[in-house]
Amino acid sequence: MQDELINKVMQEVMKRVGSGSSGTANPKEGGGSQQRSRPDLVQVTEFVGLGLGDTQGIVIANVDPSIHKLMGINERYRSIGVIGGRVGAGPQIMAADEAVKATNTEILAVEMPRDCKGGAGHGNLILFGAEDVSDARRAVEVTLEVLPKYFGDVYANDQGHLELQYTARASRCLSHVFKTPEGRAFGLILGAPAVIGVLMIDTAVKAADVEVVGYASPAKGTSLTNEVMIWVTGDSGAVRQAVVAGREVGIKLLSAWGQEAKPVTQPYI
Amino acid sequence: MQDELINKVMQEVMKRVGSGSSGTANPKEGGGSQQRSRPDLVQVTEFVGLGLGDTQGIVIANVDPSIHKLMGINERYRSIGVIGGRVGAGPQIMAADEAVKATNTEILAVEMPRDCKGGAGHGNLILFGAEDVSDARRAVEVTLEVLPKYFGDVYANDQGHLELQYTARASRCLSHVFKTPEGRAFGLILGAPAVIGVLMIDTAVKAADVEVVGYASPAKGTSLTNEVMIWVTGDSGAVRQAVVAGREVGIKLLSAWGQEAKPVTQPYI
Amino acid sequence: MQDELINKVMQEVMKRVGSGSSGTANPKEGGGSQQRSRPDLVQVTEFVGLGLGDTQGIVIANVDPSIHKLMGINERYRSIGVIGGRVGAGPQIMAADEAVKATNTEILAVEMPRDCKGGAGHGNLILFGAEDVSDARRAVEVTLEVLPKYFGDVYANDQGHLELQYTARASRCLSHVFKTPEGRAFGLILGAPAVIGVLMIDTAVKAADVEVVGYASPAKGTSLTNEVMIWVTGDSGAVRQAVVAGREVGIKLLSAWGQEAKPVTQPYI
Predict the structure, then answer these.
(1) CA pair distance A19, A52, nearest whole angstrom
(2) Tens of pLDDT, residues A65-87
(3) Widest CA span of chain C, in angstroms?
(4) Which of C117, C140, C223 to mutate to test the interface with A (most CBs of A within 10 A)?
(5) Among the partner residues A6, A219, A259, nearest to C12 by beta-carbon distance
C-alpha cells in the first residue's frame, strides 16, 4: 500500500514539476511529452500541430505586407509555414530538410535562440515560404511528422547532451543553415558541455576520411551555447563512420557523472 | 486521509523544488512570490525594495567617480537608482516609464540579459540618474509599486509565455528602449516560443491600423531570446485593438500543449 | 509513520527532480554533487576527471591536424588539455590559473557560454596547450584538484549569486581572460542579478585604493549574463579589502528575498 501511495504522490508531483524541471535538453521532460495533440481543440485556423521539444507549427495563408517587410520575406511567398520550439535546433532542421524535399517550399529563415529551457543548447524558429498555402501547410505537417526520428540520436541527462545527425543527401534547409553541399552526405557531431564535444570531434575526424564543412563553439558560430560541434560531408559511408565514432565516445563522457545518457527517441544512425 | 497526506507531501516538495523549477518565465514561481518584503531586515542603506520576477531596487547617493566612468554615466547624475530582475524586461520597463513620468530622473541605461531562469525571455537592469538622491529613490520606489500591474498581461506556462503591454502615452524609458515616440500610444505584442509570436504579430497588424515602430526575433534585436515581437504606435484605440487581437490568438497557441496560459497578476489591457 | 513516509517520498522525488531543478547557479544541485568520481569507470583514455559545477576534464595526446586548424590551435601544441563545465567561469579560470603556474602549459583559449543551467551566469571551456601529453594531463588534474577552493566565495540561492575571487599573484589564465597584469594581485567582485553587482562594485572601489582593470555587465563584456562585475589590481591588501567589502554588501542584498546566500564550498578570502 505504501508503494502505491508513493507512486500516486510521485505522479502528482511530476505533473507539477516535471516539465523542464531538470534544466536539461531533454525534450521528453518538456510539454512535448505531455502533448495532447488535439489540433481540433486549438481553435485557431493557422494552428497545424505540436512536436517534441515544445515545438509548434503554424501556417499563415496571406502574410500581411508589413510583416513581409519586417521579417525580410520576399513578397512572392504569399504563405508561410512556421516551425518553432524551445528545445533543439538540429532535429527541427533535419526534419525541415525532409519537408522541403517533399514540398514546393523554400527555407526563408532559420533562427536559433539560446534556449533548451536551462539546458546547454539552442531553440529554433524555421520559416517556410510558399506561393500556395497548402504547400506551406504540408511542409509544416511533414516536419512535425518526421521530427521524432531526428531526436533519435539526441542523448540527454542532467549534465548535458549529445546530438548526432546523418543524412545521405542534404537538401535546402541543411544547406541554408550549415552551408553544406546539397545532394551529398551530411553528418553532425555535437557535445555539451563543450568539453565533451572537443573529444567527439577529434575522434570523429580520426575515424574516417571526411571533409569538415564547419565548426562551432561557445564563442564562435553558436548562440552562446555550451556546445562544441563539427559538421562534415564526403563519402556517405565515411560520414556515417565519423558520426558513429563521435557518438560512441560522447556517450561515455556524458555518462561520466553517473547518470545514463539516454536517447530521446530511437537511435536511427 | 490519503488525500491529506498527498497534499502534505506535495507542499513539502513544492517548497523544495518550486522556485524556478519549471524553467519558465513565470515570476510567481521565483523568489518574488516568496518575498518577505521586509526592507528593514536588509540592513543596507542603499536597499529600497523587492518586486515580482526576482526584482530588486537600490539607490546610491554618491556614485564613485570611477564607477561613473566605468558605467558611462554623466557625472552630473550624482545619484543613481537601479532596478534589476531575473524575469522580465517589459514589465520593469513599463514600470520605469511610469517612474520617470513621476520623478525628476533620467533613464541612463537599460540592459537586457538572456535570463528568465530557464524561460524564453530576458532579465533586466535599469539605471535612473538624478542630481538628488531622493529623486533616485522615489523613481525606484514608484517602479516597484507599479510593477505588478505590468505583469498583468504576461501569460506563462511551462512551454512559453506571452507579453502584452499598452500605454496611451509613452515616456522616456519606452522611448529609450524602443525608440517609440514620446507622448503617443505604445503597444507591445510578444510571444514565446517565437513561432507563437509570428502569428500574434500578423494578427495584430491585420486587426487595426497601427504604425509598426519595431520588430525583434531570436536573431535580431533580442538577447538571443526565443521570442518574436513587434511594438506599435498610432491612434490609442487602434493600438489597444492590435494588442488585444495579438493576445487572443497568443493565449490559444500557448495553451495548445494542454497547460493553461495564466496571467501572472491581473490583466489590465 | 507519516513523517517516515513523507521522507521516503521526498527522497524519491528529489532524486528525480533534484538536479538543477531550481534554475540557480548552485553547482551543488547539479550533477557535480552526485559525482561518483570513478575515472576507472569511464573507459575513455582521454578522460581525466570531474569537478564541481558539472565540470569535466579531458586530454588529447595528439590532436588531429584538422582540429588544430578548426580551433585555431598553434601546431606546436601537439597535446591539449580541456576543462569545461555547465556552472561557473570564474572558479574554473582561477583553478586553471593555478594549473598553468604549476605546469609547462599555455592557455590557448577560454570561452564562456551563457549557461549555469538556468542560473544567471556563464559556463566555461578552457584549453591548455602542451608539447607533451603528460603536461597537458597534469594541468587538467591540478585544475580539478583545486577547483573546490575557488567555489568557496561563490554564494548562491534561487534568486541569484555572488562571485568573489582573490589571488596575490595572477598568472597566465587570468591575464588571458581579464587582461590583468601577471605577477600582481587580482580581485573579482561580481553580483547577480546585475542590480546587486552595481552596489557591490561601488562599495568595493570606495573601500580601498585599487586600480580597476575591467568592468562587465549584461550588455558589455559578458555572454548576456545577468551580472555586473569589476576586476581590480593593486596592493594585495587593498585588493583583498575591496573584495571583502563587495562580498559583505552582496550577501545582504542576495539574502533580501528571504533565502540564505550560502557559499558553495568554504570561503577562502
Answers:
(1) 12
(2) 999 999 999 999 999 999 999 99
(3) 66
(4) C117
(5) A6
**CA B196 to CA B254: how far, in whole Å?**
7
Between B193, B258, B259, which is nearest A123 by CB?
A: B193
Looking at residue C24, what is its pLDDT? 42
For residues C87 and C23, the answer to whether their CB atoms sit within 8 Å is no
**Count of CA atoms in the C-beta half-sphere (13 A) of C52:** 23
Q: Which residue of B has its CA nearest to A72?
A: B215
- Quote the Cα angle for B114-B118-B119, to 5°: 80
Q: Interface partners of A (3+ CB pairs, < 8 Å)?
A: B, C
Residue that the C-alpha cell 525583434 belongs to: B216
**C5–B5: do the CB atoms touch at under 8 Å?**
yes
Q: How far, in Å, CA of A180 to CA of A164, rounded?
A: 16
For residue C134, give the H/E element and its range.
Answer: helix C133-150
Query: How many angstroms separate the CA atoms of C53 and C33, rounded?
Result: 8
B103, B135 contact by CB (below 8 A): yes
What confidence tier does B27 reach under pLDDT thresholds 50, 70, 90? Answer: low
pLDDT at residue C165 above 80? yes
Contact C18 B17 (CB under 8 A): yes
Q: Where are the beta strands (DSSP E) in chain B?
A: 47-51, 55-60, 79-85, 106-111, 124-130, 154-156, 161-167, 186-192, 211-216, 228-233, 262-263
pLDDT(B12) > 80: no
Closest CA to A47 of B196, B163, C187: B196
Find, in chain A, the residue whose alpha carbon is nearest to that of C88.
A226
Helix segments in chain A, DSSP class H: 2-17, 65-71, 90-102, 133-150, 172-178, 194-207, 236-254
Could you tell me if B60 and B80 are in contact, meaning their C-beta atoms sit under 8 angstroms apart? yes
pLDDT tens figures, C7-38: 665 565 555 443 333 334 445 444 444 444 45
Residue in the block written with cell 590532436:
C63
Higher pLDDT, B10 or C178: C178
As a residue count, chain A comes to: 269
Q: Which residues are CB-neighbours of B3 under 8 A, at least 6 positions away?
A: none
Of C2, C147, C171, C163, the residue nearest C85 (C-alpha)? C147
Q: d(Cα C176, Cα C178) in Å, to the nearest integer? A: 6
pLDDT at residue A12, rounded to an integer: 56
Mean pLDDT of B64-85: 96
Whether C90 and C150 have beta carbons less than 8 Å apart is answered as yes
Identify the residue with better confidence: B31 or A180.
A180
Has residue A236 got a pLDDT over 50?
yes
Is residue A81 within 8 A of residue A59, CB to CB? The reply is yes
Residue C174 grid cell: 587570468
Classified as helix, coil or strand, C12 is helix
Mean pLDDT of B145-174: 98
More confident residue, B230 or C35: B230
pLDDT, residue A17, reads: 42
Question: Per-residue confidence at C111, pLDDT binned at 50, 70, 90?
Answer: very high
CA atoms within 13 A on the CB side of C205: 24
pLDDT value at residue A180: 98
Q: If pLDDT is split at 50, 70 and 90, which confidence band does C5 have?
A: low
Cell (9 digits) for B259: 497547460
Considering only CB atoms, which chain B residues are within 8 Å of C222? Answer: 113
pLDDT recorded at residue B10: 56
Contacts of A232 (CB under 8 A, 6+ apart): A186, A187, A189, A204, A205, A210, A211, A212, A213, A239, A242
Give the separation between CA B212 and CA A70, rounded to whole angstroms. 9
Give the three-state DSSP class for A166: strand
pLDDT at residue A220 tops 70: yes
